[in-house]
Automatic annotation (TrEMBL):
<keyword id="KW-1003">Cell membrane</keyword>
<feature type="transmembrane region" description="Helical">
    <location>
        <begin position="228"/>
        <end position="246"/>
    </location>
</feature>
<dbReference type="GO" id="GO:0005886">
    <property type="term" value="C:plasma membrane"/>
</dbReference>
<keyword id="KW-0812">Transmembrane</keyword>
<feature type="transmembrane region" description="Helical">
    <location>
        <begin position="134"/>
        <end position="167"/>
    </location>
</feature>
<feature type="transmembrane region" description="Helical">
    <location>
        <begin position="204"/>
        <end position="222"/>
    </location>
</feature>
<dbReference type="Pfam" id="PF01925">
    <property type="entry name" value="TauE"/>
</dbReference>
<protein>
    <recommendedName>
        <fullName>Probable membrane transporter protein</fullName>
    </recommendedName>
</protein>
<feature type="transmembrane region" description="Helical">
    <location>
        <begin position="173"/>
        <end position="192"/>
    </location>
</feature>
<keyword id="KW-1133">Transmembrane helix</keyword>
<comment type="similarity">
    <text>Belongs to the 4-toluene sulfonate uptake permease (TSUP) (TC 2.A.102) family.</text>
</comment>
<dbReference type="InterPro" id="IPR051598">
    <property type="entry name" value="TSUP/Inactive_protease-like"/>
</dbReference>
<dbReference type="InterPro" id="IPR002781">
    <property type="entry name" value="TM_pro_TauE-like"/>
</dbReference>
<feature type="transmembrane region" description="Helical">
    <location>
        <begin position="101"/>
        <end position="122"/>
    </location>
</feature>
<feature type="transmembrane region" description="Helical">
    <location>
        <begin position="51"/>
        <end position="68"/>
    </location>
</feature>
<keyword id="KW-0472">Membrane</keyword>
<feature type="transmembrane region" description="Helical">
    <location>
        <begin position="77"/>
        <end position="95"/>
    </location>
</feature>
Amino acid sequence: MLAGELIQSPLLLILLLLVAFLYASVGHGGASGYLALMSLFAFPVTYMKPTALVLNILVSAISFYFYYREKKFERKLFYPFAITSIPFSFLGGSLTIETHIYKIILATVLLFAVGRLVGILGKQKGELKPINIPLALFIGAVIGFLSGLIGIGGGIILSPVILLLGWADIKKSAAVSALFILVNSVSGLFGFVSKGGILPISSLSLIAVVLVGGILGGYFGSKKMNVQMLRNVLALVLLIAIFKLYTT
């Protein structure tokens, strides 16, 4: 079945809406979720990366807007990560890796997503610490390269790291992650296109679905909302995708 026919699946569209909503609610773009769904529905790997980046740009921009409006964004926490992540995301986006290696890396990253969704990763520390600039620069470079390589924004990794190191609370880490995802996704997409990559036209039909989910998730997530049950359901979907990626 062609990708253009796959995106007409009602189940896929419903799951995409749920992914956009839940990820935007915690300041993420949802690329790891979109990639997991596309893997489950047997999309071609060549279609997955650019499509996830495009959808990521839209949802992370919406999510950042709502968190910024609620005055949760701290520039001094964002810049050290972005300085190194943007060029490395471009580099990663310009590279093409073999399908089986791509699947292994993606499955490993999805484990972070599952941990974040069920609350294992990303628990807020009681006492906050000043950001360590050299360490933040290094973290930004590593996450940026990985983001561009497989087509994610990197927030699903950055957010737990910020919380683990005690550099920000949950809301502020979400705001920083949202903008981090946006700039990395744009950079990774430019890297992809610079090497002759083509954006699949059929992916444009998914924009309306993720826009609705992103707007609702960003609005409610920037305020007070607890949707842990839905996050657990999404975590189960991701686990199924991880199993498929590791075994095919």
